[in-house]
Amino acid sequence: MKCKSHKEQKKLVNDARLLRAWKKFHREERETVLAGPHGSVLNELFRMITNLTHMQPAQLIGYVQSIDWTAIDYDTKLVVIHECNNAITALRVKHDLEPIDDNLPNEPDTPFRTIKAIVLTAFPHHEGAHRGEARPE
User: Fold this and answer.
1) How far is 64 from 135, CA to CA, in rounded Å?
2) Around Cβ 112, how many Cβ atoms within 10 Å?
3) How confident is residue 73, by pLDDT bands cut at 50, 70 and 90?
4) How many helices (H) and strands (E) does the chain have?
5) CA distance 91 to 88
């Protein structure tokens, strides 16, 4: 096996350090969100995201629809999107699928894109959405 040059080794060490810092930053963001005013609702959402293997997309989407996103600040929404993206990507990789597979034009949105649209679009809260009840028109 070929030995790496000092420059290559230094880059690998630096990249590993940056990755650890990035993961720590996101872990701290998640902890801050869960300790905040919306912690109980988001804790349940993060629990669902962590257990995607046992969830149907409609269940997760329904729960996301039941949350009053107009009351949640944008930075918190970005943490939610990040957590969702990481979990879905990891699940796809685990099942030997492409990590990211967005829909083509004229195809239905993927669960991730549906969730992202719900979280980042300010809809009024709809009680009962998590039970599959339609949003009033």
Assistant:
1) 13
2) 21
3) very high
4) 5, 0
5) 5
